[in-house]
Design goal:
mainly alpha, globular, 68% helix
């Protein structure tokens, strides 16, 4: 029903957006209506290659992404990595499942859980005037170590 309703609202790729939004149609519509999908794609394309990411360059580039969008995208990416590691299937970012599957299998579970916990805790400081680039760089360094 949700896919049909979204299609009636003119939402393209409703199945992917519903997965991304955890099955919430209004959230899926918000993703479709905003510019966040482009920001999300840029972030996920960077996270898809942990062996090649440069924390300083990406931290500087991604500081322009709204903190709420960054938090949501990164948290769901980590959730998908955990889901692959533990269950073998992607839950949120189905359009990146071909990338997430090998990354999830390769990830160190303890490091991945620590990073997910850190990401969850960062939700409390989203509006704090921290140095965003430095905060992102530190996160990206830890993210790379998940796959060592």
């Amino acid at each position: 029903m949700a896919v049909q309703w979204l299609a009636e609202q003119g939402v393209d790729d409703a199945v992917t957006l519903l997965a991304l939004s955890g099955g919430t149609p209004l959230d899926a519509q918000r993703w479709a209506d905003g510019s966040e999908l482009d920001e999300r794609r840029g972030v996920l394309e960077g996270l898809a290659r942990p062996d090649r990411l440069d924390p300083v360059t990406l931290g500087e580039r991604w500081k322009a992404v709204s903190p709420q969008t960054w938090h949501n995208v990164a948290y769901k990416w980590l959730g998908d990595l955990l889901a692959v590691k533990l269950q073998g299937s992607v839950q949120f970012n189905r359009d990146f499942s071909e990338v997430l599957a090998p990354l999830g299998r390769k990830a160190d579970l303890a490091k991945l859980l620590a990073l997910a916990r850190m990401q969850a805790n960062e939700g409390r400081t989203l509006t704090h005037p921290l140095n965003r680039a430095l905060q992102l760089e530190a996160w990206l360094v830890q993210y790379r170590h998940v796959f060592d």
